[in-house]
Amino acid sequence: MISDLWLTRHGESIGNVAATTAEREGLDVIAIEERDADVPLSTTGAEQAQAFGAWLADHDGGIGTAWVSPYLRAQQTLSLAMAESGSTLVPLVDERLRDRELGVLDLLTRRGVERLHPEEAERRRRLGKYYHRPPGGESWADVALRLRSFLTDSIPAADGGALIVAHDAVVLLLVSLLTAMNERELLDFASANTVLNASVTHLRRDGARWEMLAFSTVSHLQKEGADVTVHPGSPDVEPE
User: Fold this and answer.
1) Fewest CB atoms less than 10 Å from the CB: which of 31, 74, 80, 167?
2) C-alpha distances in Å from residue 48, one per residue of 23, 89, 132, 179, 230
Protein backbone atom coordinates (compact mmCIF):
# COMPACT_ATOMS: atom_id res chain seq x y z
CA MET A 1 0.00 0.00 0.00
CA ILE A 2 1.31 3.46 -0.89
CA SER A 3 2.53 5.44 2.12
CA ASP A 4 3.89 8.56 0.38
CA LEU A 5 2.64 10.21 -2.78
CA TRP A 6 4.44 12.99 -4.63
CA LEU A 7 2.62 15.06 -7.27
CA THR A 8 4.64 17.04 -9.80
CA ARG A 9 3.45 19.51 -12.40
CA HIS A 10 5.28 19.51 -15.73
CA GLY A 11 7.95 22.12 -16.40
CA GLU A 12 7.13 25.34 -18.19
CA SER A 13 5.69 24.63 -21.65
CA ILE A 14 5.58 26.81 -24.75
CA GLY A 15 1.82 26.82 -24.17
CA ASN A 16 2.28 28.33 -20.70
CA VAL A 17 4.40 31.10 -22.18
CA ALA A 18 1.99 31.79 -25.04
CA ALA A 19 -1.05 31.83 -22.73
CA THR A 20 0.55 34.22 -20.27
CA THR A 21 1.65 36.51 -23.13
CA ALA A 22 -1.83 36.51 -24.66
CA GLU A 23 -3.48 37.36 -21.34
CA ARG A 24 -1.03 40.19 -20.66
CA GLU A 25 -1.45 41.65 -24.15
CA GLY A 26 -5.24 41.47 -24.03
CA LEU A 27 -5.57 39.08 -26.98
CA ASP A 28 -8.57 36.86 -27.68
CA VAL A 29 -6.69 33.77 -28.85
CA ILE A 30 -3.54 32.03 -27.61
CA ALA A 31 -1.07 31.49 -30.45
CA ILE A 32 -0.26 27.77 -30.29
CA GLU A 33 -0.19 25.54 -33.36
CA GLU A 34 0.12 22.19 -31.61
CA ARG A 35 -2.83 20.33 -30.18
CA ASP A 36 -2.79 20.38 -26.38
CA ALA A 37 -1.44 16.83 -26.10
CA ASP A 38 1.58 17.74 -28.23
CA VAL A 39 2.68 21.02 -26.59
CA PRO A 40 6.37 20.63 -25.61
CA LEU A 41 8.44 22.14 -22.83
CA SER A 42 10.07 25.52 -23.31
CA THR A 43 13.82 25.88 -22.85
CA THR A 44 13.17 27.00 -19.28
CA GLY A 45 10.84 24.04 -18.78
CA ALA A 46 13.57 21.63 -19.86
CA GLU A 47 15.96 23.21 -17.36
CA GLN A 48 13.31 22.86 -14.66
CA ALA A 49 12.84 19.20 -15.55
CA GLN A 50 16.58 18.60 -15.21
CA ALA A 51 16.52 20.36 -11.83
CA PHE A 52 13.63 18.10 -10.84
CA GLY A 53 16.03 15.28 -11.69
CA ALA A 54 18.16 16.34 -8.71
CA TRP A 55 15.09 15.93 -6.49
CA LEU A 56 14.37 12.56 -8.07
CA ALA A 57 17.92 11.40 -7.42
CA ASP A 58 17.43 12.14 -3.72
CA HIS A 59 14.06 10.33 -3.56
CA ASP A 60 14.34 7.58 -6.17
CA GLY A 61 14.97 4.89 -3.59
CA GLY A 62 11.66 5.65 -1.91
CA ILE A 63 9.60 5.63 -5.11
CA GLY A 64 8.37 2.25 -6.27
CA THR A 65 5.83 3.37 -8.88
CA ALA A 66 5.57 6.36 -11.19
CA TRP A 67 2.65 7.45 -13.34
CA VAL A 68 2.68 10.14 -15.99
CA SER A 69 0.14 11.97 -18.13
CA PRO A 70 0.13 11.01 -21.83
CA TYR A 71 0.70 14.67 -22.77
CA LEU A 72 4.13 15.49 -24.19
CA ARG A 73 5.07 18.21 -21.70
CA ALA A 74 4.56 15.85 -18.74
CA GLN A 75 6.38 12.97 -20.41
CA GLN A 76 9.32 15.22 -21.32
CA THR A 77 9.49 16.44 -17.73
CA LEU A 78 9.76 12.94 -16.30
CA SER A 79 12.06 11.69 -19.07
CA LEU A 80 14.55 14.54 -18.60
CA ALA A 81 14.43 14.14 -14.82
CA MET A 82 15.08 10.42 -15.06
CA ALA A 83 17.98 10.94 -17.43
CA GLU A 84 19.47 13.54 -15.06
CA SER A 85 19.02 11.35 -11.98
CA GLY A 86 19.91 8.00 -13.51
CA SER A 87 16.57 6.61 -12.33
CA THR A 88 15.54 3.16 -13.54
CA LEU A 89 11.83 3.70 -12.89
CA VAL A 90 9.50 2.37 -15.58
CA PRO A 91 6.71 4.99 -15.62
CA LEU A 92 3.14 4.01 -16.38
CA VAL A 93 1.21 6.27 -18.77
CA ASP A 94 -2.40 6.79 -17.74
CA GLU A 95 -4.71 8.89 -19.90
CA ARG A 96 -6.86 9.73 -16.86
CA LEU A 97 -3.99 12.00 -15.76
CA ARG A 98 -4.30 14.21 -18.88
CA ASP A 99 -4.98 17.93 -18.53
CA ARG A 100 -8.52 19.29 -18.36
CA GLU A 101 -10.16 19.54 -21.78
CA LEU A 102 -11.67 22.96 -22.53
CA GLY A 103 -13.72 22.16 -25.65
CA VAL A 104 -14.89 25.26 -27.53
CA LEU A 105 -12.97 27.48 -25.10
CA ASP A 106 -9.63 25.88 -25.96
CA LEU A 107 -6.95 28.50 -26.80
CA LEU A 108 -9.17 31.40 -25.68
CA THR A 109 -8.11 33.97 -23.09
CA ARG A 110 -10.56 35.44 -20.58
CA ARG A 111 -11.13 38.31 -22.99
CA GLY A 112 -11.64 35.86 -25.83
CA VAL A 113 -14.25 33.90 -23.90
CA GLU A 114 -16.15 37.08 -23.00
CA ARG A 115 -16.06 38.35 -26.60
CA LEU A 116 -16.50 35.15 -28.60
CA HIS A 117 -18.61 33.03 -26.23
CA PRO A 118 -20.39 35.45 -23.88
CA GLU A 119 -23.07 32.83 -23.21
CA GLU A 120 -20.41 30.48 -21.79
CA ALA A 121 -18.91 33.26 -19.69
CA GLU A 122 -22.37 33.83 -18.20
CA ARG A 123 -22.96 30.08 -17.66
CA ARG A 124 -19.62 29.84 -15.88
CA ARG A 125 -20.50 32.73 -13.58
CA ARG A 126 -23.84 31.09 -12.76
CA LEU A 127 -22.61 27.51 -12.31
CA GLY A 128 -19.20 28.27 -10.81
CA LYS A 129 -15.78 26.91 -11.73
CA TYR A 130 -16.32 23.42 -10.39
CA TYR A 131 -19.45 22.48 -12.34
CA HIS A 132 -19.17 24.58 -15.53
CA ARG A 133 -18.58 22.26 -18.49
CA PRO A 134 -17.74 24.07 -21.75
CA PRO A 135 -19.28 22.45 -24.84
CA GLY A 136 -16.98 19.61 -25.89
CA GLY A 137 -14.91 20.00 -22.73
CA GLU A 138 -14.80 19.01 -19.07
CA SER A 139 -15.80 20.57 -15.78
CA TRP A 140 -13.59 20.20 -12.73
CA ALA A 141 -16.15 17.63 -11.53
CA ASP A 142 -15.58 15.62 -14.73
CA VAL A 143 -11.82 15.60 -14.15
CA ALA A 144 -12.37 14.61 -10.51
CA LEU A 145 -14.50 11.67 -11.68
CA ARG A 146 -11.74 10.22 -13.87
CA LEU A 147 -9.20 10.84 -11.11
CA ARG A 148 -11.40 8.94 -8.64
CA SER A 149 -11.27 6.06 -11.09
CA PHE A 150 -7.47 6.33 -11.26
CA LEU A 151 -7.14 6.39 -7.47
CA THR A 152 -9.45 3.39 -7.08
CA ASP A 153 -7.61 1.31 -9.68
CA SER A 154 -4.00 2.33 -9.18
CA ILE A 155 -3.22 3.44 -5.64
CA PRO A 156 -4.26 0.21 -3.84
CA ALA A 157 -2.13 -1.88 -6.24
CA ALA A 158 1.14 -0.04 -5.54
CA ASP A 159 3.50 -0.27 -2.56
CA GLY A 160 5.85 2.19 -0.86
CA GLY A 161 6.16 5.64 -2.35
CA ALA A 162 4.68 6.79 -5.66
CA LEU A 163 5.16 9.70 -8.06
CA ILE A 164 2.67 11.30 -10.44
CA VAL A 165 3.80 13.80 -13.11
CA ALA A 166 0.88 15.64 -14.65
CA HIS A 167 -0.82 19.07 -14.74
CA ASP A 168 -1.90 21.84 -12.38
CA ALA A 169 -5.62 20.95 -12.39
CA VAL A 170 -4.75 17.28 -11.84
CA VAL A 171 -2.54 18.12 -8.86
CA LEU A 172 -5.19 20.36 -7.30
CA LEU A 173 -7.97 17.84 -7.77
CA LEU A 174 -5.92 14.90 -6.49
CA VAL A 175 -5.12 16.93 -3.38
CA SER A 176 -8.79 17.76 -2.94
CA LEU A 177 -9.90 14.14 -3.35
CA LEU A 178 -7.29 12.66 -1.03
CA THR A 179 -7.80 15.27 1.71
CA ALA A 180 -11.60 15.30 1.32
CA MET A 181 -11.99 18.98 0.38
CA ASN A 182 -15.50 20.04 -0.58
CA GLU A 183 -16.21 22.35 -3.52
CA ARG A 184 -15.85 25.59 -1.53
CA GLU A 185 -12.69 24.45 0.21
CA LEU A 186 -11.12 23.45 -3.11
CA LEU A 187 -11.99 26.74 -4.81
CA ASP A 188 -10.69 28.77 -1.86
CA PHE A 189 -7.49 26.73 -1.84
CA ALA A 190 -7.04 27.10 -5.62
CA SER A 191 -7.58 30.86 -5.39
CA ALA A 192 -4.86 31.18 -2.75
CA ASN A 193 -2.33 28.70 -4.14
CA THR A 194 -0.69 28.12 -7.54
CA VAL A 195 0.79 24.83 -8.69
CA LEU A 196 4.15 26.06 -9.95
CA ASN A 197 5.95 24.47 -12.89
CA ALA A 198 8.05 21.45 -11.87
CA SER A 199 6.93 21.86 -8.26
CA VAL A 200 6.44 18.94 -5.87
CA THR A 201 3.44 18.35 -3.62
CA HIS A 202 3.80 15.67 -0.94
CA LEU A 203 1.01 13.68 0.70
CA ARG A 204 1.36 10.91 3.28
CA ARG A 205 -1.13 8.26 4.25
CA ASP A 206 -1.97 7.79 7.93
CA GLY A 207 -4.26 4.79 8.05
CA ALA A 208 -7.28 5.64 5.89
CA ARG A 209 -6.51 9.37 5.88
CA TRP A 210 -4.11 11.43 3.76
CA GLU A 211 -2.23 14.44 5.09
CA MET A 212 -0.65 17.07 2.84
CA LEU A 213 2.88 17.68 4.10
CA ALA A 214 4.00 20.15 1.41
CA PHE A 215 2.34 21.94 -1.49
CA SER A 216 4.00 23.18 -4.67
CA THR A 217 7.54 23.29 -3.29
CA VAL A 218 10.29 24.49 -5.64
CA SER A 219 13.35 24.41 -3.38
CA HIS A 220 14.96 21.89 -5.78
CA LEU A 221 14.66 24.43 -8.63
CA GLN A 222 16.19 27.17 -6.51
CA LYS A 223 18.99 24.87 -5.36
CA GLU A 224 19.84 23.93 -8.98
CA GLY A 225 19.55 27.51 -10.25
CA ALA A 226 16.51 26.89 -12.46
CA ASP A 227 13.94 29.65 -12.91
CA VAL A 228 10.73 29.49 -10.89
CA THR A 229 7.83 30.29 -13.22
CA VAL A 230 4.27 31.23 -12.34
CA HIS A 231 1.85 30.10 -15.04
CA PRO A 232 -1.52 29.26 -13.46
CA GLY A 233 -2.68 27.45 -16.60
CA SER A 234 -6.40 27.50 -17.33
CA PRO A 235 -8.23 30.63 -16.13
CA ASP A 236 -10.30 28.21 -14.03
CA VAL A 237 -7.24 27.64 -11.84
CA GLU A 238 -6.72 31.33 -11.19
CA PRO A 239 -8.37 33.49 -8.51
CA GLU A 240 -11.73 35.06 -9.27
Assistant:
1) 31
2) 23, 19, 33, 28, 13
